[in-house]
Amino acid sequence: MARRDNRPSEPTGCPCGQPLPYADCCRRLHRGEADAPTAETLMRSRYAAFAVGDPDYLLRSWHRSTRPRGLRLDPAQRWTGLEVVGTDRGGLFDSTGTVEFRAHYRDGGRPGTVAERSRFVREDGRWVYLDAASS
């Protein structure tokens, strides 16, 4: 069931794929109650933000030099699964990191996949999405 603001209803399991309820996982980051400790955690929380329809979090977690002015999510697109392929750095004591992933979705009943190597940096002590790394 969709919310009045056209966002999907809140999931019970976390869309990011971690074995925690959404309320104990990515929702805390989406609400600003916690910061992502690693680049992978941030990437997973950004995927979950797409899945639950939270463009505000996506913009807040985007580096100021590459952040768009606005973001409109397609309400017909349903995110169905996330595979983390690999990570390079992005840990607790790093200042940069890369996470390679495949995000699966359905759009109008048709399946699709987004494959990306995302680059992350620390900005004011917090992990933020910078851009997609070129292959």
From TrEMBL:
InterPro entries (UniProt xref): NTF2-like_dom_sf, YchJ-like, YchJ-like_M
Segments passing through the bilayer: none
Family per similarity comment: Belongs to the UPF0225 family.
The protein, known as: UPF0225 protein C1I93_27915
Organism: Micromonospora endophytica
